[in-house]
Amino acid sequence: MEELRWYKIFDSLAEAEKKLPLNQSVRVVIKNISICLSHSHQGFFAVQDECSHLKESLSRGRINNWNEVICPWHAYRFDLATGEETSGNGCASLQTFPVALEEDGFFIGLYA
Ligand code: FES
């Protein structure tokens, strides 16, 4: 069984908030896995970057007030906390990744 490993993305919360302002997302690649890292009013969330509909990059999408990322192609919505597709189109849920803020930085956790 693979072990959860933590990968540092930013050196501090201040750097995270500066480089990833509120209501924006960025694509992060760790071990060849593309992740959409988003900053919403509820905090920072990491989900798979590839939309489960037709593979658009979700980090290019918008974030709404319900903590969802909206795919830029067909506007399907996904809950950033659970990965669930919330627009009722029956798409698979996104993989989610844990994020952690520690004294020495801001991390994303991956089984890789
Ligand atoms: S590719 Fe994302 S909604 Fe169609």
In round numbers, the mean pLDDT is 96
CA-atom Rg in angstroms:
13 Å
Distance between the first and last residues' Cα:
10 Å
The secondary-structure class comes to mainly beta
According to CATH, the fold-level topology is Rieske Iron-sulfur Protein
- Multimerization status: single chain
How many β-strand runs? 10
Which descriptor suits the 3D outline? globular
Poorly predicted residue ranges: none
CATH class value: Mainly Beta
What are the bound molecules?
FE2/S2 (inorganic) cluster
N-to-C SSE string, H for helix and E for strand: EHEEEEEEEEE
Count, helices: 1
Superfamily at the CATH H level? Rieske [2Fe-2S] iron-sulphur domain
Corresponding CATH architecture = 3-layer Sandwich
Structure description:
By secondary structure, this protein is mainly β. It has one domain: Rieske [2Fe-2S] iron-sulphur domain (Rieske Iron-sulfur Protein, 3-layer Sandwich). It is 6% helix and 42% strand. The protein has one helix and ten strands, in the order βαβββββββββ. The protein has a four-stranded antiparallel beta sheet, with no helix packed on it. It has a three-stranded antiparallel beta sheet with strand order 1-10-9. Strand 3 and strand 4 form a beta hairpin. The longest helix is centred in the N-terminal third of the chain and has 7 residues. The chain is globular. It starts with a strand and ends with a strand. The model has no long low-confidence stretch (mean pLDDT 96). FE2/S2 (inorganic) cluster binds next to loops.
Q: Keyphrases for this structure?
A:
112 residues; mainly beta; Rieske Iron-sulfur Protein; four-stranded antiparallel beta sheet; 1 helix; 6% helix; globular; binds FE2/S2 (inorganic) cluster
